[in-house]
Design brief:
single chain, alpha/beta, Rossmann fold, eight-stranded mixed β-sheet, two-stranded antiparallel ribbon, 9 helices, globular, disordered N terminus
Length: about 300
Amino acid sequence: MTENTKKAEPACDGNCSSCSTASTCDDPAKKAHGIEKVKIDVKHIILVLSGKGGVGKSTVATNLAMSLANKGYNTGIVDLDIHGPNIPKMLGLEDKRLESRDGKTIEPVRLTGNLGVVSMAFLLPDTTSPVVWRGPMKFTAIKQFLEDVNWGDMEYLVVDLPPGTGDEALAIAQLAPNIDGAVIVTTPQDVAVLDSIKAVKFIQQLDLRVIGIIENMSGMVCPHCGEPIDLFGEGGGKKAAEKLNIPFLGTIPLDPEMRKAGDEGRPFIIRKEGDEQHRITWEHVDAVMDNILKEIKK
């Protein structure tokens, strides 16, 4: 293809909030468009996302944040699933609201002394209220959740993103400093793995690191005969990681106690007690969380 026949790059329309290359763009006009990294005192930001819904992404995010806090790190978790904020429910904080002590900054809801939470759910009249917003309004809210919140001096901020590759993920990539990368959550079946591969390529297109893939709902032990059952297939996440040459962070079995933990607002990672099956699940969850930390520290 000659120089004259090359397809011209589309002209910048100034709408950085919906541009996939805004996080790496060096256009001097970008500052005028309002896209600058926010000032937030955090050493490590971990994105948690998936290519499709229903794969347990929020479960991973809450357990990761709880695991980090339990290890003594000052940790925050920001729920950026604007239209379906479930983090407060999964942490037992449904009745909480965001407050401001000085009228200028927002105080995160504290689950423990070193774990703060921010979510759209804390601003809604009730749990059934929908959020009917377009992209620019979500971008503004995400920016406020980062720079207008009194997070304090954090070591880790876990960001729970909605499924897919849309506005919220683009916004956080453009706004947040010190992003270590993204953890991709999938289930074993081909349809979920296909979408997780899209999520991986999306993160790479944003010039961010893929920390690794987690295969959730990876088999379960029959409560009657004790034999393993692969309800959604087996090994899809590991095969995708090998194909894309990115780390495989491990598997998490399908366990009714995981569902129960989320519904009761007590992250599974804090439950070491239980029968043999649940102990094995806990060991898998703990190993996955440790693998995420190991990849970040490499």
